[in-house]
Amino acid sequence: MSDPFFLTVAQVTALHRLSIERFGGADGIRDAALFEGAVTHPQQVYFYTQADLFDVAAAYAFHIAQAQACFDGNKRTGAAAALLFLDVNGVSTDVDSAPLHEAMLAVAERKMTRAQLADVLRRLCK
Fold first, then answer.
1. Is 49 helix (H, G, I), strand (E, B) or coil?
2. Is the pTM of this model over 0.90?
3. Do 122 and 100 touch, CB atoms closer than 8 A?
């Protein structure tokens, strides 16, 4: 099995901008180093913990949402990054957005772990 395709900082920045254009909010990255760390952390999750695609997708969503490196739209950007990561790696992401929205709120409120978020993604993206 080959390694998955990982998202770049530029790609996730573009997702953030699209989210702001579509749903509103303040555009921009508040802390570039924190944002870059959140976007690149999923690679460490994959290479050092033998994670599956859902664990890696959860790492994108979880760390982007909790880093709060964007002025606005952190949860949306994290969820979009997770779904894009799964999609480009061959996982169907035609999902009901309500459970993912609820999960992202729980992540932001620190009521859901990254592992729990991975389980949500596994259930949603069958």
1. helix
2. yes
3. no
